[in-house]
Amino acid sequence: MFGISPLGWVHTLGSLPAIPAAFYMIARYGRIVPRSPAGAIYFVSMLIGATTVFLVAKQPISSGIGAVTIVVLLAGYGVGRMPGLGRAARYLETVLLSLTVFLLMVPTVSETLRRVPDGHPIVTDPKSPLLLGVMAGILVALVVGVSAQIVYLRRQGRRAAS
């Protein structure tokens, strides 16, 4: 189904829980919260998706995205534990983990549009205006989302200081 191999299904279904976990945390906390139950689900799911992409990807760019995702994910989960960063750690954590959501959504949306419905996908050309428009929309969501998260964190910091 959808031209996906058994290993491809492991990749897809293993990384799928990251999407609702990310959206839940963003809606609930305004950001990805690494040290939470949803944060643990997000981490494991992202790690499954990013590591298995090397086994299933047909495009060289996919392996690059997987490698970058792993590095940014580990940095995002580790930066909060680094001594000496103070409040900057929370900002860095937020930006890095928001970037992982972007790195998750780009191939997810692209692959979905290029495979669904089975046999007659919505998009057949990688340079399709629809696909490029959706990718631009995801990029705008990243920029606006990170900006909103930074503003939110600054306001929280000011309230805590007063």
What would you say this structure looks like, in words?
The structure is a single chain. This protein is mainly α. It has one domain. The protein has helices at 6-15, 18-29, 37-56, 60-78, 88-115, 129-161. Helix 2 (18-29) packs antiparallel against helix 3 (37-56). The radius of gyration is 17 Å and the shape is globular.
Mean pLDDT over the full residue set = 94
Share in helix: over 70%
Counting DSSP E segments of at least 2 residues, the number of strands comes to: 0
Beta percentage is under 5%
**How large, in whole angstroms, is the Cα Rg?**
17 Å
Low-pLDDT segments: none
In total, the number of domains comes to 1
Key phrases:
single chain, 162 residues, mainly alpha, 75% helix, 0% strand, globular
Compact overview of the structure:
The chain has helices spanning 6-15, 18-29, 37-56, 60-78, 88-115, 129-161.
Write the layout of secondary structure elements.
Elements: H1 6-15, H2 18-29, H3 37-56, H4 60-78, H5 88-115, H6 129-161
